[in-house]
Amino acid sequence: MAETIFAKIIRGEVPCHRVHEDSHVLAFLDVHPLSRGHTLVIPKEHAATLDALSDESAAAIGRILPRICRAVMRVTGAKAYNVLQNNGVGAHQAVFHVHFHIIPKFEAGEGLGIVWAGRPLGTSGAELAAEIIASMG
Questions:
Q1: CA distance 77 to 73
Q2: Paired strand residues for 41
Q3: Which of 38, 97, 99, 101 is catalytic?
Q4: E strand or H helix at 65, and its extent?
């Protein structure tokens, strides 16, 4: 797997403003933030996409992510925020190491902008759900 900037940050070769670190997870401020408090949360385990991440690392992120969100909200005073996680080039992933963005959203439009173009699920929902359940085995 290709070396990423996050691997260098984890090893301490590239500096960052750390807000949390334990044996499984590192969280630090984004150097190109969309808003004040924009924080990245990454597993120390290298996995390019979330589906490739171990259950242990995923659980560690799941335990700390809400706590970091609460802290970012308290410090920034933001009343809303996005948690964003992209997987693959087609989903706009730029660094191929799993990472979650915590992006505070402010009244002035600072933060993540999203256009949601959903469409009705339709009658295939039951069949699709059954296929996903079977695949989880």
A1: 6
A2: 27, 100
A3: 99
A4: helix 55-76
Per-residue pLDDT of the chain (137 residues; tens, 9 = 90+): 579 999 999 999 999 999 999 999 999 999 999 999 999 999 999 999 999 999 999 999 999 999 999 999 999 999 999 999 999 999 999 999 999 999 999 977 778 887 777 888 877 888 888 888 899 87
Task: Give the separation between CA 111 and CA 98, rounded to whole angstroms.
Answer: 21
How far from the centroid of its chain's Cα atoms is residue 61's Cα?
9
Instruction: Identify whether 99 is a catalytic site residue.
Output: yes
The domain 5-136 having CATH identifier 3.30.428.10: the answer here is yes
Q: What is the pTM of this model?
A: 0.90
Using a 10 angstrom Cβ sphere, with 0-12 exposed, 13-18 middle and 19 or more buried, the burial of residue 95 is: middle
